[in-house]
Design brief:
Number of strands: 9
Largest sheet: 7 strands, antiparallel
Helix content: 25-40%
Radius of gyration: 26 Å
Structural class: alpha+beta
Strand order of the largest sheet: 2-3-4-8-7-6-5
Order of helices and strands: HHEEEEHEEEEHE
Length: about 210
């Protein structure tokens, strides 16, 4: 009798699994879904960028005018321990590119954010600025040194994509401008001009 009940239990389990599989198949067929949907969603980093530009002790860089196909995927600002700004992107070929900035000494900071890339001793001029070329087993990087801040463009994307991002970077002054007066946007790593005492600063053109 026990053997018979055992066989019946196994049979019931098999039937139940078949029913569940059939129901799942029907649901999959008739409920709309997109097999080609991109699982990585673009992030809107405007709020984080504005917050970082108010808080950071250096001009925070972000790209402007990138070609179609670039997708922002991550953003963060750490207000202490080097005041680190991070902005992650996927390029049009879905390869990773990140913009990293910090007041941490470059000797420590660059290998950290570039996954142990090393300075090749070469440089590359991008949009009038000279960047160091770093290469590593996982990421390569372009590194720009300015007073009080190191800017790193790094990732798995090829060198030309890193240069494309570096060339698109724009900054805003660390100090918050007066209300109603838009601030000029210099290139990353280029400090804003300081007017002479008693000479009013020229207003930036309206956006």
């Amino acid at each position: 009798m026990a053997s018979k009940r055992g066989k019946q239990t196994v049979r019931d389990m098999i039937l139940s699994m078949l029913v569940i599989t059939a129901v799942a198949g029907v649901v999959y067929i008739f409920i709309p879904h997109d097999d080609k949907a991109d699982p990585i969603k673009a992030v809107d980093y405007r709020v984080e960028l504005a917050t970082a530009r108010r808080a950071a002790p250096y001009p925070v860089a972000a790209p402007a005018g990138l070609a179609e196909g670039w997708k922002p995927t991550s953003v963060s600002y750490e207000g202490h321990n080097g005041a680190g700004w991070h902005l992650g992107y996927l390029d049009p070929d879905d390869r990773y590119v990140a913009v990293e900035q910090s007041t941490t000494p470059a000797k420590k900071y660059v290998p950290q954010v570039s996954q142990d890339a090393e300075n090749t001793g070469r440089t590359r001029e991008v949009s009038g600025r000279v960047w160091e070329v770093w290469e590593g087993p996982k990421y390569d990087a372009l590194v720009l040194h300015a007073e009080g801040v190191t800017t790193v463009v790094t990732g798995s994307a090829p060198a030309d994509r890193l240069a494309e991002m570096a060339g698109a970077l724009k900054t805003a002054p660390a100090a918050t401008p007066s209300a109603g007066t838009p601030a000029a946007t210099p290139s990353a790593g280029t400090p804003a001009a300081t007017p002479s005492a008693g000479t009013p600063a020229s207003e930036a053109p309206a956006a």
